[in-house]
Amino acid sequence: MTEEISIRDRSNLRSQEVQEIIGNPPHWLIRWGIGLFFAVLVMLLSLSWFIHYPDTVSADFTLTSLNAPKPVDAQTSGKLSQLFVKDNVKVHRGQILGFIQSTAYPHQVLQLDRVTNSLLQDLKKNRVQKITQFHPNQYDQLGELQTNFQAFNQAFLQFKAYLVSGYYQHKKMILMHDLQYLKQLHKNLLNQQDIALQDLRLSKDKFAVQATLAVRKVIAPINFKEDKSRLLSKQMPLSQLKASIINNETAQNDKKDQLLELDKTISEQKITFLQALNTLKSRIANWEYQYVLRAPVSGTISFISFLQKNQNIQAGQPLFYVKPPNTHYIGLMYIPQFNMGKIENGDRVIIKFSGYPFQQYGSVRGTIKAISSVPKNSKYMVKVGLPDGLTTGYGKKLTYREGMSASAEIVTANRRLIEKFIYKIRKTTLGK
Question: What class has domain 327-431?
Fold first, then answer.
């Protein structure tokens, strides 16, 4: 009981001390406290006016290119029999990078490809003599193409026989010789006809004079009849010459028809040979597509994984990338409708790549170039240009790699801090 009274007395004693402090505040607090509070408040409001706070919209960023690196994939499974390039070396378009193992000898197939291209040009320009100089016997290691080459070779030999020493070529020469003879004969017949016409005109003039004399009875009637008979005899050879000329022209037309028919036959053989040539070229192109690795564009080669000769590879396996020298990068972002009203063309974009930590490499600067007007899956596509390429704000140039991911922030407005406070208060008030 005594202890409880003692505790209550101590509590009352402390309460009295607190009351004395509260009841007698310091004079400086009363004098300067309120003023100091307002001064601090004014200073904070002033700082919030001068301090700018960027308003951003965040989204995933996909890096792509207007001239992106082109992949070189294996089109068939097998061993990498030859590899002619190393990582990070420059190559030109169409350059052979390697061979996948095949039963054909690759260099022989490639040589045949060049020859067939030359044959095709010679055939189009009708350079027959050059076509006949082709020697098919040197192609004996074509592997998968051997059957197709044999079919082409048969068509070539048949076409060559038509062109050089075959029956049709000799027949064409004979027909052309006959036609030339008929043309010369036709020329002679025309000359004979011209002479006969002149002789006939002279005979008619003479007969006209004799007729006048006969009317005047200067000459005897028997002499006049003889002159008339001679005139008629002059007309008969002329009729025979006209018939000969017609027969000659008919013979010439017949020879021309035979030449046309012969040319048609040779043309058909030419078409057959052309079809066989195009079929072989198609088979060669298909073989090269499967077994020859070529650079799709000019640029710098980049290995995706470790590669070496006789290594097994699978169909569809990507082996290299060729990066063109004039690559222009762009970015794609998909923004939901909720934030689309804030975004405009020309807005600044801060891009941070996952593979290059922001703290160490910095960010890449971007600018909005275009905004789609039609949404896809409730999101709008935004194209982002990279004016500095892949160079970061720290001056470091990032290496492009396929499938690089990044996060991006679109700076929609550079607001003052006080505007941010007012926006929060307004949002809270309207929310209530």
Answer: mainly beta
